[in-house]
Design a protein that fits this description.
Layout: H1 5-19, H2 22-28, E1 33-38, E2 41-46, H3 49-71, E3 76-81, H4 99-102, E4 108-112, H5 155-166, E5 176-180, H6 186-200, E6 206-210, H7 211-223, H8 227-235, E7 239-243, H9 252-267, E8 271-276, H10 288-294, E9 298-302, H11 307-321, H12 327-336, H13 341-357, H14 364-375, H15 384-394, H16 399-403, H17 409-425, H18 430-436, H19 442-458, H20 460-474
Helix pairs in contact: 1-3, 5-6, 7-8, 8-9, 11-12, 11-13, 12-14, 13-14, 15-17, 17-19, 18-19, 19-20
Bound molecules: adenosine-5'-diphosphate and magnesium ion.
Length: 475
């Protein structure tokens, strides 16, 4: 790849142009020039400080997306500000000068890190009592809004999360409680809110913590007689994100301390974000007064994603990993794994791994095997009768023909395929399969399975039969 600053910027521009109004594009992007490209850092020259600030304020996301598409996750953007009015400033300079800029002489450069580095303290429960200690947010930067794909199933929760991130503590969504089943994105969304707030309001103290860890810290503080420090520590936080609050069930001491912390934060306009695997009404062994606090703000549910959303989640994952996969395989996986995004991702990762370890092409058959492992509990049992019906329909014959004693090649093949799928999709023994498919013996079934295996690796047309039928039998 022979990237130049110009070529990279040109590609960014055409992406940007597709995503904003022509007027805005002409005003804010046409005057920008690409200057140099060093590793992952693209330097662009902007006409003024004001330009730089405007771009940062209004287009930083778009720029990030565009640049990452070109230069990968570690892409960076450096602004070079063309000096204004070399012959003395005509305008009084009122814009705020970002600190990063001050140390530079002309042309001024502003290096905007695209990834948060966050060189803060590790332990969230550090040196209690010391007020101005920096608290590390414990956020995972890759769990952001950009990677949290929107669909009908999550639209409310996602936009409430965005609203909270735009104005932490300043919306009626306080607390924001996100609830939903396992693997539907609660943790991801909780992080995304925190990550976005850190990006917008770097000075705010954000803390993500699981309810379990919170509980452990609390118990520890009781043991060590530092309960007050524990409470003070949490009262310092501007945005407190607690994941899986159902964990507080039955833990009255922790609920009590959380109640006090919550009230303090809420009264002081601080934001609280909670997640739970149940709606507040269904939570058990949580004190009433706490439940009623949970209901003060907004409870937003994450539901199982619909088919389209599942496909886009998979495509997005493949895209980010730089893997190409036939659309029909993606759709097959999305069709068969319905209830849980984590499993969806798991299946596609395992499919990629299988194919690259074993140097196997990703076929529908391989996909079916992998998906099988993920959904084996919920998979409905396919009967041998059903298999015979599907196979004979596919070859446009009736079941009696398929079972008959004829040695006509296409009928023999159909029969062998039926046996092969019966072996594959049912727990029936070879003997039992044989007796149900035209009263054959177990050796015939075994032979049929081997023949199908062989033919599908040597005969393209035959492999197509196997794939089509696999698909039909798995839906
Ligand atoms: P939960 O906390 O509800 O059990 P997670 O937040 O851990 O679920 O999500 C499980 C996986 O699914 C994570 O890898 C997450 O990134 C992914 N995921 C969930 N929802 C989405 C979505 N809407 N877009 C992209 N990825 C998602
Ligand atoms: Mg979770």
């Amino acid at each position: 790849m022979n990237n130049t600053a110009e070529s990279v910027w040109e590609n960014c521009l055409s992406f940007i142009q597709d995503n904003i109004q022509p007027q805005a594009y002409r005003t804010w992007f046409e005057p920008v020039k690409a200057v140099k490209l060093v590793d992952n850092a693209l330097s662009i020259q902007v006409p003024s400080k004001f330009f730089y600030e405007w771009l940062e304020e209004h287009y930083v996301k778009l720029l990030k997306v565009a640049l990452r598409k070109e230069l990968g996750e570690n892409a960076r953007l450096v602004y070079i500000i063309k000096m204004e009015n070399t012959y003395g400033n005509r305008l009084p300079f009122t814009e705020k000068i970002p600190s990063a800029e001050r140390s530079h002489v002309k042309p001024q450069e502003v290096d905007v890190p695209i990834k948060n580095k966050n060189p803060e303290l590790r332990n969230p429960f550090v040196i209690p009592g010391i007020r101005n200690v920096k608290i590390e947010s414990q956020l995972n930067p890759s769990y952001n809004f950009e990677s949290f794909l929107e669909g009908d199933s999550n639209r409310l929760a996602r936009s409430a999360g965005m609203a909270v991130a735009n104005k932490p503590g300043g919306t009626s969504f306080n607390p924001l409680l996100v609830f939903g089943g396992v693997g539907l994105g609660k943790t991801h969304l909780a992080h995304a809110i925190g990550v976005e707030i850190k990006e917008k309001y770097p000075e705010k103290t954000v803390l993500y913590i699981s309810a379990e860890k919170f509980t452990q810290q609390y118990i520890e503080s009781v043991k060590k007689n530092t309960r007050n420090d524990f409470i003070h520590f949490y009262q310092l936080i501007d945005v407190l994100i607690i994941d899986d609050v159902q964990f507080f069930s039955g833990k009255t001491g922790t609920q009590d301390v959380f109640f006090h912390i919550f009230n303090h934060l809420h009264q002081n306009g601080k934001q609280v974000v909670l997640t739970s695997d149940k709606a507040p009404v269904d939570m058990q062994d949580i004190e009433q007064r706490l439940l009623s606090r949970f209901k003060w703000g907004l409870s937003a549910e994450l539901q199982s994603p619909d088919f389209e959303t599942r496909v886009s989640i998979l495509n997005n994952k493949l895209y980010r990993d730089g893997v190409e996969m036939p659309e029909e395989i993606v759709e097959y996986v999305a069709k068969n794994i319905k209830s849980n995004v984590r499993e969806l991702e798991g299946a596609i990762i395992s499919l990629i791994a299988q194919s690259s370890f074993n140097k196997r092409e990703i076929t529908l058959e391989l996909a079916a095997q992998v998906v099988d492992k993920f959904v084996k509990n919920t998979k409905r049992e396919v009967s041998i009768d059903y298999i015979q019906k599907v196979v004979s329909d596919y070859f446009q014959m009736d079941v009696e023909t398929l079972q008959s004693k004829t040695r006509k090649r296409h009928i023999v093949q159909a029969r062998q395929l039926a046996m092969f799928f019966a072996k594959k999709f049912t727990k029936a023994s070879l003997a039992s399969i044989g007796s149900q498919i035209g009263s054959r013996d177990h050796a015939t079934v075994l032979h049929a399975c081997k023949t199908v295996d062989n033919l599908s690796s040597t005969d393209k047309q035959f492999r197509k039969y196997v794939e089509d039928l696999t698909k039909k039998l798995s839906l």
